[in-house]
UniProtKB/TrEMBL annotation:
It comes from Rikenella microfusus. One of its GO terms (cellular component) is plasma membrane. Keywords: Antibiotic resistance, Cell membrane, Membrane, Transmembrane, Transmembrane helix, Transport. The gene is mepA_3. GO terms for biological process: response to antibiotic. Belongs to the multi antimicrobial extrusion (MATE) (TC 2.A.66.1) family. MepA subfamily. The lineage of its organism: Bacteria, Pseudomonadati, Bacteroidota, Bacteroidia, Bacteroidales. PANTHER family: MULTIDRUG EXPORT PROTEIN MEPA (PTHR43823:SF3), SPORULATION PROTEIN YKVU (PTHR43823). This is Multidrug export protein MepA. The keyword Ligase does not apply. The keyword Nucleus does not apply.
């Protein structure tokens, strides 16, 4: 497959951003489609109990995806700066160290999770009634988490290497394979939740192996390289990985926000509305990663351009990319919000029969849930920008605001103040408050610069 060759320092910024954004967006949506297709087949093949069971496991998956994003963002930013300064060997070392790090951490964690499936399922919030379904999904999908990490980190590097279309195809192939296997395992074979987990595991493994093959043999510049085994080399590797993780920490917090959203939402819905409420919320949680991936696609499309030109000292190009990214975020957020407000029945109907109790709860709640989508995508774009220019503190602070400091109290107090509607409004309220904080921070910085 032909690789793109994009000059990050000289091509016109709008054209360069478009060349990254379109394939990155398609690839990101394909990643979300893997989970959504699971939900569609589980919803129609198993029912709302199956959806609730998968939704209980998803926060754990989000934590691992956050680990991959954290390492991928940090590695990509550091490698971009090294490339802009002509240090190709150092950039390759950072790529290799990042991939080895996620492989070791995920391998050990996956083994522990599979060794204690029932305690892990209960820790995630599973009821005794849903426990068999949750453990089925956990045992059949968790071994594929290492491949998920290869894909998460690898796609950043593939795009930085000048091949965004190849990165897109890694995700698209996995998504298409998941659709076929989901249908086969759930309907003709009747494997239920286990079949959905096994199908997703195979598709994720396929995407991860493609990414690993590219980095090992097909990369234009950023190929994997041997690491020295001396004590000094180990210390340097740990230092580099620590720096990468620090830069990318807000990306981990971004995934942790989705995990916290699902965790707190599951508990709030089951408390106020029972298992039908959790089933309704699970449908919303299948769509939330799509919105997240739109914001992530904007941030990741801008990141290599911003980081490269930041390292080269081209501040005008950095500002131009940020302006285009913000405009794209607002337009995409408005489009997604319109779909949720206009026809929630069609969106819910993909997963559940519209006549069911869970479906009716979801249809009524979707317009409220969508109220914060513009701010959701804008916040991800701004946090990605701060990461790209190595401003770790504001990136981390805003990620903490939207994911924990604002989100948790909103889930606790809004249902008390507004009833069931308040549960749906918890996420929008958190995102709107975070956007207000970013505007205040940016305005304060501009006033200081003028003085």
């Amino acid at each position: 497959m032909e690789k793109d060759a994009l000059d990050l320092g000289t091509l016109k910024v709008p054209s360069l951003f478009r060349k990254y954004f379109v394939p990155t967006l398609l690839g990101m949506l394909s990643i979300s489609a893997v989970t959504a297709v699971d939900g569609i087949f589980v919803g129609h093949g198993v029912g709302s109990d199956g959806l609730a069971a998968v939704n209980i496991y998803v926060p754990l998956l989000m934590v691992f995806q956050g680990l991959g994003l954290m390492t991928g963002v940090g590695c990509s930013v550091v490698a971009s700066v090294h490339l802009s300064r002509g240090k190709l060997k150092t950039a390759r070392l950072n790529v290799t160290q990042a991939l080895l790090f996620v492989t070791l951490v995920t391998g050990v964690a996956s083994a522990l999770i599979c060794a204690f499936p029932r305690p892990v399922a209960r820790l995630l919030g599973s009821s005794e009634y849903l426990l068999p379904l949750v453990t089925d999904y956990l045992l059949w999908f968790t071994p594929a988490l290492t491949f998920q990490m290869w894909s998460a980190v690898g796609l950043f590097i593939i795009r930085l290497d000048g091949a965004p279309r190849l990165a897109m195809w890694c995700s698209v192939i996995a998504a298409l394979l998941n659709i076929v296997l989901d249908w086969l395992f759930i309907f003709p074979l009747g494997w239920g939740v286990m079949g959905a987990a096994f199908a997703t595991a195979i598709s994720v493994a396929t995407g991860g192996l493609i990414a690993l093959w590219y980095l090992a043999a097909g990369a234009r510049s950023l190929r994997l390289c041997p690491l020295k085994r001396s004590a000094k080399s180990l210390r340097l590797s740990l230092r580099n990985i620590g720096y990468q993780c620090r830069i990318g920490s807000s990306a981990l917090l971004g995934e942790a926000t989705l995990a916290m959203l699902m965790f707190m939402g599951n508990r709030a819905f089951i408390r106020y509305m029972g298992e039908n409420g959790v089933g309704a919320f699970s449908v919303a949680c299948y769509y939330a990663p799509f919105v997240f991936m739109v914001g992530n696609a904007i941030a990741q499309s801008a990141q290599p351009i911003v980081s490269y030109n930041f390292g080269a000292g081209n501040r005008e190009r950095v500002s131009a990319v940020f302006r285009i990214a913000l405009l794209t975020a607002v337009l995409c957020g408005a489009a997604v919000t319109t779909a949720f407000v206009w026809r929630p029945d069609l969106l819910v109907g993909l997963f559940l029969s519209p006549d069911g109790a869970a479906a009716q709860i979801a249809i009524e709640g979707f317009p409220w849930f969508a109220a914060g989508f513009v701010c959701f995508i804008v916040n991800l774009t701004c946090i990605g920008y701060f990461q790209s220019v190595e401003r770790v503190r504001p990136a981390t602070a805003f990620a903490l605001l939207r994911g924990f400091i604002f989100l948790v109290p909103c889930f606790v107090f809004l249902p008390v103040l507004l009833g069931n509607k308040g549960i749906w409004l918890a996420m929008p309220a958190s995102e709107i408050l975070t956007t207000a904080a970013i505007v205040l921070f940016y305005g304060s910085g501009r006033r200081k610069a003028v003085r």
